[in-house]
Write the structure tokens for this entry.
Amino acid sequence: MRMRRWVSHDGIDVEMTYMPFAQQLVDALAHVPLVLTMDGSQVGRGCMVLMVGVIYKSRLLPLAWVVYKGKKGHTTAERHIEVLEKVRLLIPEGTEVILLGDAEYDTTPMLAWIQAQTSWHFVMRTGANLLIRRGSAWVKIADFARKPQQLQMLHEIGFTQTADLPANLVIWWGADYQDPIFLISSLPNASLAARFYKRRFSIETFFSDQKGRGFHIHQSHLAHPVRVSRLLIAACLAYIWMIGLGLFTLSTGNHTLIDRTDRVDKSIFRLGLDWLTYCLKDELPFPVFFRFKPLSADVR
């Protein structure tokens, strides 16, 4: 009943309630490059969430989101920009930022906004059927994939005939890939762009933790975007808390009580959730916190 009242309370403003916590996360991590990623997922009944977060120890810490009525699939560049603008306001001036996304987020309006409004780098997957400008000629991206085990970058291309945005193209055909991956990026090095893009999949584990492996928010049956967004406040704060508890168990050695003693098999989120269950069962005290201490680059 408490949660029902929470999600239906018109006085609860998502930005005002959650953004102070997001700001603390950014402030704790902004002294090293921030790796952001964005993706969408279905939540509630007939609603989609577009989420942006910062990658931390192979997990995504949520920063901002937009909820709207719709089905899984591509949404508008205006929504992409809307959620990125929320994140932009959190980031201190001079902070190095790398934004990652899959092929849904290679829209030229969003990339043009990044280039005009920020100093961020970006690495986005893109489609093989798109045209890029190479010198004065327009060539299909797929034509540059000639052989497996290939990693190369084409510098100073123009991205799509409709926008001709300045960028670099990465052709990445790994030995275990059936087809090549194409990335559009502002980074100057192919290996660097590929290494960052691998980290994009952290957002998949976030949605798994919010759903079937954790909080099961997909079973809420909420159908109103505003109410789903309020539910996400609680779910994201609980998620941040579980990440903190997981780190707490590792730093104190308590993880051996809920995991193997010879190695760590569970994720940081799972350690936190299992430690909370362990403490509640045995009536043990446990810390409650949503703030992360600044970390050095070598432990991040």
About this structure: The domain at 2-241 is CATH 3.90.350.10 (Transposase Inhibitor Protein From Tn5; Chain A, domain 1). The first helix runs from residue 2 to 8. DSSP finds eight helices and ten strands in the chain. The mean pLDDT is 91.
